[in-house]
Structure formats: C-alpha cells, structure tokens
Amino acid sequence: AQKVTQAQTEISVVEKEDVTLDCVYETRDTTYYLFWYKQPPSGELVFLIRRNSFDEQNEISGRYSWNFQKSTSSFNFTITASQVVDSAVYFCALSEDDKLIFGTGTRLQVFP
Amino acid sequence: DTEVTQTPKHLVMGMTNKKSLKCEQHMGHRAMYWYKQKAKKPPELMFVYSYEKLSINESVPSRFSPECPNSSLLNLHLHALQPEDSALYLCASSQDTRLVNTEAFFGQGTRLTVV
Questions:
Q1: Largest CA distance in chain A
Q2: B106 at interface of A, judged by CB pairs closer than 8 A
Q3: Is the pLDDT of residue B19 over 70?
Q4: Do A43 and B111 touch (CB under 8 A)?
Q5: Which H helix or E strand runs over A25?
Q6: CB–CB of A47 and B104 under 8 A?
Q7: Which residues of A touch B41 (CB under 8 A)?
Q8: Closest residue in chain B to residue A52, using alpha carbons only
C-alpha cells in the first residue's frame, strides 16, 4: 500500500536558519508523482512542487530546494534562510491514480 | 485566475440543520474534489468528480451529499451531521483526475462546527 511518512511533527527555528523537512514514501508503482504542499493558518493548501519518479534531479526555486532520492525513497524539502512567513504546516504527498496520499505533515514555526 | 473559491468560510450548524458548502473554479478544470481535514491531521479524500460525474466516493456517510451542477461548481449538501463531523472541508480542482499529469489547486476551506 502507498504510504507517506513525515517523521518530524514539529520544527522550530529562528529566522535566517536553514531547515530541512523530511519525507519518506512507500509505493509499488514504478511511475508515480510526489508533491509538497504548504498550509498556512488560513487553511488553504498551497501547491509547491510536483516531481515524477523518473526525474531525480534536485530542484531549486528561490529559497526552496528539493532533494529526491529514489534509492532511499525520500523527497526532502529545504528552506534556506527561513522567514517568519514560512511558518505553516507542510505536507508531502504521493499520487495514487486519482488520489493524493498525504503524510501527516510537519508544523514549522519560524521565530523572529 | 488560479483560484478555488469556497463559501462560506465558517459555518456553525445544529445536528438537525440542512446546509450546503459551495466551491467554484474558473480554470477550466474537469476534476473537482472534496477533502475533510480534522485538526492536526492530513486531508482525507471524500469525493472526486470527473467531467461532472461522481467517480470516487470514499465510503462517505450519506449525510454528506455531493453535487456538481456544472464544470465550475461543486456543492456539498449536509444533513443530520454529528459533532464529530466538525472539521475543515477543502475543495480542490485539477486539469484532470490523473494526478500524475497535473497538480491539484485547493480552496481555503470551510471551517464547519456541528453543535
């Protein structure tokens, strides 16, 4: 069965620190997609990235970067020079046909 | 316009009430979803509509009744709910239902409290 594990329940950092959010997944599919979503206190899930299983290149978007390693079934997310506005719950998710299988989320608190 | 709009933002209802949640998108997406999210938990899929037809019902109790009047609108009709149904209800849409091909965009949700 598909499964996504985010072992870090909550992380607290001080502004400008770098922080990495871990995501480990299980799937028997050879073709799959991984996602990261951000959920600020307002409630909306904000799409951050979609990565397919054949593309193991790391991706960088501004202060955000993602490290996909198929060998360890991990898709980790790093925020460089964190800011207070980064405070949110971050969900990693795995596609299964028409469904998104979400991890339990990591609550990130960035203090000034 | 990359918005999914949900109304109302907050709703308090009694266990004998009938209410509806509304969701609208104008991105031309052909798949729409309802998710339920309890506090400190991940979203859980409830229903999927594909081309205005119900394609997935995740064994949701009949007190929740979805409706897709057209390709831009998705409703969730609520009747005889229980206090444990209190949650954030999120609507989402995507270009098609194959999430390997596209990402889903979510609304801000309706925070429902059943008293």
A1: 43
A2: yes
A3: yes
A4: yes
A5: strand A24-26
A6: yes
A7: 104-105
A8: B100
Among chain B residues, CA nearest to A103: B42
Contacts with A67 (C-beta within 8 Å, 6 or more apart), sequence order: A58, A74, A75, A76, A78
Instruction: Report the pLDDT averaged over residues B34-57.
Output: 94
Identify the CA nearest to B90 among candidates B46, B50, B28: B46
Tokens 């009949």 correspond to what residue?
B62
DSSP bridge partners of B106 = B92
Give residue A57's pLDDT: 83
- The pLDDT assigned to A104 comes to 96
Q: With CA atoms as reference, report the closest residue to A81 among A26, A21, A18, A27.
A: A18
What is the C-alpha to C-alpha distance for residues B114 and A106, in angstroms, rounded to an integer?
27
Mean pLDDT by 10 residues, chain A (112 residues): 93 98 94 92 90 87 94 96 97 86 96 96
CB neighbours of A104 closer than 8 A, spacing ≥ 6? A5, A6, A9, B41, B42
Q: How far is B89 from chain A (nearest CA, A)?
A: 10
Residue B112 to residue B12: CA distance in whole angstroms: 6
Q: State whether residue B92 sits within 8 Å of chain A by CB.
A: yes
Taking a C-beta distance cutoff of 8 angstroms, is the pair A19, A8 a contact?
no
**Chain A residues within 8 A of B99 when measuring between CB atoms:** 33, 95, 97-100
